[in-house]
Each structure stands twice: as structure tokens, then as C-alpha cells.
Write a structure and sequence with these properties.
The protein is α+β, with helices and mostly antiparallel strands and about 140 residues long. Helices cover about 20% and strands about 35% of the residues. A hairpin with a 5-residue loop joins β2 and β3. It holds the Pfam family NUDIX.
């Protein structure tokens, strides 16, 4: 199947912001990368349900809904459209899980140091509470 024929997948990510304006980042167990918690929607799953499930699986935290959409991002190489939301903790304390080896509350500067540009911009847009939401494209690492 050519790239033109391959369907896109849709993912969600939740940028949890604390009272000090820091964002919760996870370090993925599979590739060691720092990014906001999130993942691909399952068949029949709503966007809010996927967001809440993914954040809970990767951080142990239940988020408050509704969350605020702060950006839409397309990975031009991986054919993934990601919806990113600014979130608040409703219940729980951040902890690592099966998919995460570390968690960290990061300042704006630390986000840019830890995460690849394609993921850092998502967090920075959420910290800025981008309105209207940002719409960006990247190659999986760098913005295009």
C-alpha cells in the first residue's frame, strides 16, 4: 500500500499543567523519548474517552473533562494526526506505569531541552493555551 493509500491514525495527548505553570512529561519506555502522555484512539472510542484513558495509563492521573484543545499536529511521515489538550488533574498522583519509565514536571525551558521539537511545540502551545488552537506539521522530529 502506497503512502497515498494508507489511512491516517488519530492520536490524543494531554498536557497536564500544575499550579506553577509546569507541564507533566513522560519518558517512554519503548524509545526513551520525553513527551506529553497520549496515544492512538481505539475503534469506537470517543476523543475525550481516549484522552482520559491514555493519560491514566501513562501517568496514573485522572484528568478533568472537558479539556481545552490547544493544537492539531500532523506527522507527515508517520501519517498520524494528533489532537493535543491542556488538562488539569482531577484525581491521583503521577506515577510511572507499563509504558513510562520516568515522569517529570518541566518548565518551558526544560521542555525544549528534553523533547524533540515536534513534541516540545505541542507542550509549549498548551502552556500558552493557544487560542485558536495551533495547526502544525512535522516529520516526526522537526517542524515542517
Amino acid at each position: 500500500m502506497s503512502t497515498a493509500e494508507r489511512p491516517h491514525s488519530v492520536s490524543v495527548a494531554g498536557v497536564i499543567v500544575d499550579d506553577e505553570g509546569r507541564a507533566l512529561l513522560i519518558q517512554r519506555r519503548d524509545n526513551g523519548q520525553w513527551e506529553p502522555p497520549g496515544g492512538v484512539l481505539e475503534a469506537g472510542e470517543t476523543i475525550p474517552d481516549a484522552l482520559q484513558r491514555e493519560v491514566l495509563e501513562e501517568t496514573g492521573v485522572k484528568i478533568a473533562l472537558p479539556a481545552t484543545l490547544t493544537g492539531v499536529y500532523k506527522n507527515m511521515t508517520g501519517l498520524i494526526v494528533s489532537l493535543v489538550f491542556r488538562c488539569e488533574v482531577a484525581d491521583g498522583t503521577p506515577t510511572t506505569g507499563e509504558e513510562t519509565c520516568a515522569l517529570r514536571w518541566a518548565t518551558r525551558e526544560e521542555v525544549s531541552e528534553l523533547a524533540d521539537e515536534a513534541y516540545a511545540v505541542r507542550v509549549l502551545d498548551a502552556l500558552d493555551a493557544a487560542s485558536p488552537p495551533a495547526i502544525r506539521a512535522h516529520d516526526g522530529v522537526k517542524l515542517i
